[in-house]
Amino acid sequence: MSPSSLPDTCAEPGLAVTGLAVYVDVDETLLRHYGTRQIPIPSVIKQVKALHKQGAELYCWSSMGAVYARQCAETCGIAHCFQAFLPKPQVIVDDQQPKAWRKILHVHPSQCSSQTTVQEYREELKKPRSL
Q1: How is residue 20 annotated by DSSP?
Q2: Strand 31-34 and strand 21-25: pairing?
Q3: Tens digit of pLDDT per residue, the chain (131 long)?
């Protein structure tokens, strides 16, 4: 694809994502596993619902694939909160390692009990960080 054939939105300088994109894992994040049982993690489910209500762009992903991610979100009763269901990437083609991305936060499921808001995540993303 030549630069002249790119959609206008790709060619526009300074184009920024307006929402907060949040990717939520399934195993041991939405659901805890005890043998063959899957038990929803209430604090994470509550956080997903709160972020959805505040307008975050939520994506559910799993190394087990998109269909599995959707099934698990349905089990938790929150499939409607997600814009898409994805497999976790196995290969990332990018000029930077993910650890060097300027605007990325890692949130452990145990941190979801604090019920951080979209605005609080945005403020955290603005803070300078060392690479």
Answers
A1: -
A2: unpaired
A3: 444 454 544 444 444 445 899 999 999 999 999 999 999 999 999 999 999 999 999 999 999 999 999 999 999 999 999 999 999 999 999 998 887 787 888 888 988 877 789 998 888 888 877 66
